[in-house]
Design a protein that fits this description.
Strand content: 5-15%
Shape: globular
Number of strands: 6
Protein name: Haloacid dehalogenase type II
Order of helices and strands: EHHHHHEHEHHEHEEH
GO molecular function: hydrolase activity, acting on acid halide bonds, in C-halide compounds; metal ion binding
Pfam family, one: Hydrolase
Number of domains: 2
Structural class: alpha/beta
Number of helices: 10
Keywords: Hydrolase, Metal-binding
Amino acid sequence: MAVFKPKFITFDCYGTLINFDMAGAASAIFADRVIADQMLAFTTDFARYRMDEVLGEWKPYSAVVCQAMARTCKKWGVEYKDSDGAGIMEACATWGPHPDVPAGLAAVAKEFPLVLLSNTMNDLITHHVPRLGAPIHRVFTAEQAQSYKPRMRGFEYMLDELGCGPEDILHVSSSLRYDLMTCHDMGIKNKVWVNRGHDPANPAYGYTEIKDIGGLPGVVGL
């Protein structure tokens, strides 16, 4: 079978490319309030509340993080301070790519324009794009689209801005829930799941699985 050659390879950024360690940041901040053997459950709830917070109308990502953290603390009966959310946002700006990302991206960037669609703010992503190790053609944020994934509006905004249709892109993400399930519903047939352990596999969504970005060149025949 012929290898699909997309007009654009589009990516989720945080988690897929950038090592998005929200759990680590929260664990450090709450080490004095949550006992160690409960921290995984605490940070898992934090992740679930972040998902819930992005399903409504757009708001700044700092508000998403702070409100999700406050809800997590309420559930756990833990004190929440405004400095907690601010500390997590400060940590976000320091994170770099997974080790496999720069070389993998550089290999595919030789032939395909690379595009980011990210649940972030315009100013936050400026810290991370230069760390990816490859030229990025376009960057689209939730702030620009006024909508967060997994809602469809961000994908629609990206496709409109690129002047292409669902059939023209290959979308790459480590998250089924934020990205690939929505892609499936929108008719984006060409999808790659980077299995970083964020979600359980579900092949019914019709993706190609790779273990890291180093496997991406092979997907597009390089």
